[in-house]
Amino acid sequence: MIKFLKDFRFKVVEDPGDQLIPLFEQGRAARVSRGNIEFQMEESKSIGAKACFNLFLTDYSDEEIENIKILGHKCDMQESIYGEFHFFRSPDGGVLVL
């Protein structure tokens, strides 16, 4: 998941000392940021536990999206009256939409 997030130009700081988690499963934690977006993630140690990561972002340029595709991430594209949407599947089964 870390490589996936870094490919999308997120800054990932593993086990930062100023973070509130891990609270639940006592797994590895990370603070993730890009621009003015910041969130925290935690790895689960529970067998069968699953929480898919889904995110919709609008600040990616066409060049950035092409660079992500070049890195080997599969992309499904859909068009609507609002423009093009690029769907990338995250390693945990979630979706990142640009």
Task: Provide structural commentary.
The strands form two sheets. This protein has a four-stranded mixed beta sheet, with no helix packed on it. Helices cover 15% and strands 35% of the residues. A hairpin with a 2-residue loop joins β2 and β3. It has two helices and seven strands, in the order αββββαβββ. It has one domain: 2,3-Dihydroxybiphenyl 1,2-Dioxygenase, domain 1 (Roll), CATH 3.10.180. It is α+β, with helices and mostly antiparallel strands and 98 residues long.
Task: Determine the mean pLDDT.
Answer: 85
* Overall domain count: 1
Strand order of the largest sheet: 4-7-6-5
**What are the segments in which pLDDT stays under 50 over at least 5 consecutive residues?**
none
Q: Briefly, what CATH class?
A: Alpha Beta
Q: For the report, how would you describe the main beta sheet?
A: 4 strands, mixed
Share in β-strands: 25-35%
SSE blueprint and pairings:
Layout: H1 2-7, E1 11-14, E2 29-34, E3 37-42, E4 55-56, H2 62-70, E5 75-80, E6 83-89, E7 95-97
Provide a quick synopsis of the model:
The two termini are 17 Å apart. The longest helix has 9 residues, at 62-70.
Name a few traits of the molecule.
7 strands; alpha+beta; 2,3-Dihydroxybiphenyl 1,2-Dioxygenase, domain 1; 98 residues; four-stranded mixed β-sheet
